[in-house]
Amino acid sequence: MRKQANRGVHASIIKDELDVRQIVNEMISQGEEEGALVMFLGFVKGMVNGIKVMKLKFEAYEPLASNKLAEIVRQESKEVKDIRVYHRVGELKPNDPIIYIFVSAKNRHTAFETAKRVLERVKHEVPIFKLEIREDGEYWVVGDNKRVKRSKLGNDDH
User: Which of 45, 44, 134, 46 is nearest to 90 (CA)?
Assistant: First the structure.
């Protein structure tokens, strides 16, 4: 089996939106043996369980989060030509993009499966913290869509 040359691996914590078209065009132009490019875009929901979401705040200790993101991308790059993952931090409004995952591979099955694994690993392994500000209060979003009401220090509601 011939090893793929010019493998691209990129992972970043970012604040601003990306030009998706530019990245897709770049990845397609660099691949001669690839026949598939999968892109996943996760964005802020406007409603959760019937409750309006005003914004999400994403926070991370960026050196640690960036290193973990890069580690995941490196580990998942074995069967594909190019993987690029970008996760945003800061305050985002409904419909704002949160995470971008791009995977190019020789076939669609490999591209889809790799993108899915990368997404699940990012959600469970990268230390990025998400605070959801909704009509009914503020909630920390923890694994698998569980929400924990944010408590204010010094607030004795018990």
Answer: 44
* CA–CA gap between residue 41 and residue 15 (Å, rounded): 15
pTM, full prediction: 0.88
Both structure tokens of 42 = 């996760």
Residue 130: name the closest of 103, 96, 156, 155 by CA: 96
Nearest CA to 100 out of 24, 8, 4 is that of 24
Structural domains for the chain: 8-149 (3.90.1170.40)
Query: Percentage of the chain surpassing pLDDT 70?
Result: 91
State the residue for tokens 């990245």.
23
Report the candidate in 156, 5, 19 with the shortest Cα–Cα distance to residue 80: 5
